[in-house]
Amino acid sequence: MAQAPDFTKLMKDMMGSFPVDMSSMQDAFKTQAALGERFSKVALEAADKSAAISTKWTKETLAKVGTASTVKEDPADYSKVMTDFASAQAEMASENVAAFAEVAKKVQMETIELMLAAGKDISEDATAAVKKATADVTTAAKKATASAK
Questions:
Q1: Residue among 72, 64, 59 nearest 89 (CA)
Q2: How is the chain split among helix, strand and coil, in percent rounded to 5?
Q3: Higher-scoring residue by pLDDT: 71, 145
Q4: What backbone phi and psi angles, to 5 degrees, belong to 55?
Q5: Which residues contact residue 132 at a Cβ distance below 8 angstroms, ignoring those fewer than 6 apart?
Q6: What is the per-residue pLDDT across 56-94, written as a single tens digit (0 to 9) for each?
Q7: What's the rounded Cα separation, in Å, for the pair 126 and 142?
């Protein structure tokens, strides 16, 4: 009587010879870690520049407040000081908002560059991993088929 093939042994042999290569996972993790590092650098640099702009703006405002808070001889001088202070604040606000906009623009451009580079890296990693996995599975399937015969 013909003996039925032992599918349990066939599956065990096939899974035993199925390659599990963690190098592609490690490469993906390294790529993600490097991307995170670059994003952190962009964010920290932007935060540093923003803090510098804010500090400069605050110091300039405090200096103007100090000037405006001095005692004046003529009551009309108070009106002039307040007008000068308001004018200076409007000018500083315009300059500092433009400086913040430049920081934001730079962050946006660097983020886009990082995302494009990351997409390219991830695509290349995925393509290489799929090609390797396909070759490994084909080899494993051939070995399993050969051992079943």
A1: 64
A2: 90, 0, 10
A3: 71
A4: -65, -45
A5: 21, 24
A6: 999 999 999 998 888 888 888 889 999 999 999 999 999
A7: 24
CA-closest candidate to residue 101, choices 91, 109, 112, 89: 109
Reported as a single tens digit per residue, the pLDDT across 116-126 is: 888 887 777 77
Tokens 């433009």 sit on residue? 98
How long a stretch of residues is the chain? 149
The dihedral through the CA atoms of 10, 16, 19, 25 has a sign that is positive
- CA-based end-to-end distance of the chain: 18
CB 57 within 8 A of CB 96: yes
- What pTM did the predictor assign? 0.64
Nearest to 132 by CA among 25, 16, 11: 25
* Residue appearing with tokens 């090609």: 131
Residue 1 has pLDDT above 60, yes or no: no
Tell me 90's DSSP state: H
Q: With beta carbons less than 8 A apart as the criterion, state whether 31 and 121 touch.
A: yes
C-alpha span between 103 and 123 (Å, rounded): 30
**Of 22, 2, 39, which is closest to residue 117 (Cα–Cα)?**
39
